[in-house]
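Q: How would the structure tokens look for this protein?
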Amino acid sequence: MTHTQRTASLGLLIALILTPSVASADLFTFWAAGKGNTFNGSGDLFQNFDNRFGGGAEAGIEIVGLDIFGEAVVLGLDQYLFSANLGLDFSVGDDIRLTLGAFTGPLFFLFPEPEEATGATFSGLSAEQQLAIEQQFGSIEEAEEQFNQFSETEKDLSRVAVGYNIVRARADVDVRLAPGIYLGLTGQAGYHLLLSGEEIAAGAKNEAVEGFAKDNNLPDEVTEALRSAVGAEPIDKKNLEGFNLEVQLHLRIELGT
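A: Here is the predicted structure in token form.
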């Protein structure tokens, strides 16, 4: 048997194995699940959660293998994770079902509101640096007031983080308890781009400092002092990349047509 014939035979065998599952699959399925899970990932952001374990819910629709679903997870007091996912999956089995899929979609984290906003302060600058700033702003107080306009925005941004799962692999093992009711275990691993609200605020302040320095021809030393005093930092694109992992135990209800 030639290589081409062996390949064709293998493809036919796989098709025959999968045909019963595909033929009996619903064209449209709505599903919802309650879950207990653990969620973790690379980067400092994931250290902000009170707990590694939480509870939540998922809900979605599947149209001939195309899945759209969202999840919401509570990971502590006023600490939440939300995600939206679009992708493809396939299942094998009946009473015990294995489902494999790949997804993409946004992530959103919400944290408690901080007690107070951090403002700009120039008291720690050298006398020479303070003099240079006074010459540009008129007074240290005026300089602090201008840069403190970012404080309330920074306070709001510090509550959030936004990201995107470039790809998120998912594997489910479900046991059918009754028609349309499944108890299962899920593992998910995502490769993401993630940016915290603090990083967004620091990047915005950095742009403001750069623009002010350029318009007023500030020396590099004064520019750096301003950047340090107001907490301005450029966004490091290399720090956006990372991985997230999730393991969950769920009870899932499906309604299909």
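The radius of gyration is 26 Å.

Residues 60 and 69 are 4 Å apart (CA to CA).

Upvote if useful.
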